[in-house]
Design a protein that fits this description.
Blueprint: E1 3-7, E2 14-18, E3 23-27, H1 30-36, E4 41-47, E5 51-54, E6 58-63, E7 69-74, E8 81-86, E9 92-96, E10 111-113, E11 130-131
Parallel strand pairs: 3-10, 10-11
Antiparallel strand pairs: 1-2, 2-5, 3-4, 4-9, 6-7, 7-8
This protein binds zinc ion (ZN) (2 copies).
The site of one zinc ion has 8 residues, from loops.
Length: 133
Amino acid sequence: MESRIATCPCGAVQLVCEGEPVRVSVCHCRNCQRRTGSAFSAQARWPDAQVTVTGETREWSLTGDEGGRATFRFCPQCGSTVAYVLDTMPGLTAVPLGLFADPGFTPWPRFSVYESRKHGWVEITGDTLERWD
Ligand SMILES: [Zn+2]
Ligand SMILES: [Zn+2]
């Protein structure tokens, strides 16, 4: 099975993700904007067992607007989110797309979530893209 390597910017945490991601999405919600410090987040999800994390991580949790809980793992050295799980998507680990530093990453995002919070200058494209408010 093909595997992909994700690395935090300081290099202390590495993730090996085996096989094809089962869901690739972007999210424009307020938490993703704040967590990433960017206009939106982009992430790929694999079944938990297909993601292996090496290096020390710490975690924090928050309860979202709709009541679901999210738990984020981050590198204590550089502070980057390296993986997260949502109560509403049990069994799946999300890995920020940027950690692969691969502009050729496929598949492209299939879901664009919280478009009601999207910055006006952002446009997500793709033939099979589904948009959710
Ligand atoms: Zn780091
Ligand atoms: Zn979000």
